[in-house]
Amino acid sequence: MISQRQLYLNHLAQTSPAPLALEIVHAEDVFLTDTSGKKYVDLIAGISVSSVGHRHPRVVDAIKSQADQYLHVMVYGEYILSPQVKLATKIASLLPASLNATYFTNSGAEATEGALKLAKRLTGRSELISFVNAYHGSTHGALSIMGNEYFKTAYRPLLPDTQLLAFNSFTDLEKITTRTACVVVEPVQGEAGAVVATNGFLAALRKRCTETGTLLIFDEIQTGFGRTGKLFGFQHEEVIPDIILFAKGIGGGMPIGAFTSSHENMLAFTENPVLGHITTFGGHPVSCAAALATINIIEEENLVAGVASRETIIRKHLVHPAIRELRGRGLLLAAIFEHAEINQRVIQACLKRGIITDWFLFCDNGLRIAPPLTIDENLLRDCCLKIVDAIREVVA
Ligand SMILES: Cc1ncc(COP(=O)(O)O)c(C=O)c1O
Fold this sequence. Notes:
This protein is α/β, with parallel strands linked by helices.
């Protein structure tokens, strides 16, 4: 009989020549189990998604109870759907008053697309600015502002009138002008390998955007909802954007994205043309119910407060001379090796020890450490010691 692995290779579109191809049969809390019964600790949370752990019982209950009421009933925005209303109201209650209206999407990339369109509508300008090594999604608009040429070049022509600035370069901010519709930035650049904005950079960026009438968009798709040790990445500097993007961790494992701005700004989508952004499944009721449960868990289980002690554990125990730098913030961390080959071998050696790590899209020598925020502290320490053991084996 043809194996499931072979069917996967035959019939699922592949995106890399050598996928990890773990065959998962069960996920619970921070653990994934494969077909052989081997249990892995998920130290990357499905790429910053499963912040409250896999299949948190309250998320599963919310999904089941919404499924008992209704699934899809109409394209986004036309009906009053309680899961969407409750979630949007909750998000508004957590953000500054100027960020009080949310448009729900299917994914992070779609949130980026919506935000770029909104910025063009609101400013009447076309220039879109982002940063070297930024990742905002893989659709055409999001790809156009991606900060890495290798991943873009085969898809050109992309959107015109884009510009990349160097992240953390204060002098580059001068390139933002009255022609610029928006600047999109991650408070901690995820796929660059967890690169933190230096002190004062986001404030200087805010100042320049205000001076030039440019909209400031924070992509909090990885940093949002606790991952960096504050509920939102922007709270480390108290710099308030005009538009904020969410996805990944907000959904508790269900697909959802969102972009949030002021109610007044969002009105731009209602006229000339009406239906300024259209999505069928964006804000799916089941995803919204799961997201609301996720946010409530993050609040009620005090998960954000637990990030700092977990970061400390990692910084204390993930120590080896082959790690040149352990950078990042909170539970979005990168252990940097001299080159990618060491990293790949460490990733494999960790897998052997039942630990899932990964590299970063634009930083192949960086080992991704971004576990669920719920991870037990003793387990996290043990994982760090096992990673160090894996590094020892690789560099021996
Ligand atoms: C910072 C950031 N923005 C946007 C995206 C795109 O999100 P999605 O994969 O849901 O389209 C990602 C995904 O990795 C991301 O890390």
